[in-house]
Inverse folding.
């Protein structure tokens, strides 16, 4: 997840969305680490990005209200984390370590 930051965080607006979504998702399943929580709380403390005003005149206030709610959630323990289900079927890999694949293109 953290390695993908550079692909999604192209500016402050997308950084806000990325880190708050990651933090909320991990909190939901009970796996929120301290460093991700702190990163999200720092972003929330800065306030909602001004781009929300371009979406709608009320969007900035609504977003800030949701960010404030999220900050309270992230600082508390999730009383009922969602259980991550394990796959029921054991899948065998198609290839073995050391196999070489060749792909032929027409062009």
């Amino acid at each position: 997840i953290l390695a993908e930051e550079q692909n999604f965080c192209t500016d402050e607006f997308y950084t806000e969305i990325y880190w708050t979504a990651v933090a909320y998702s991990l909190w939901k399943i009970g796996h929120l680490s301290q460093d991700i929580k702190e990163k999200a709380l720092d972003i929330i403390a800065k306030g909602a990005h001004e781009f929300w005003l371009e979406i709608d005149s009320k969007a900035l206030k609504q977003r800030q209200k949701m960010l404030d709610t999220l900050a309270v959630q992230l600082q508390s323990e999730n009383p009922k984390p969602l259980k991550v289900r394990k796959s029921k079927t054991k899948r065998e890999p198609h290839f073995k370590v050391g196999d070489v694949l060749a792909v032929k293109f027409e062009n």
Q: What stands out?
A: Residues 12-28 form the longest helix (17 residues).
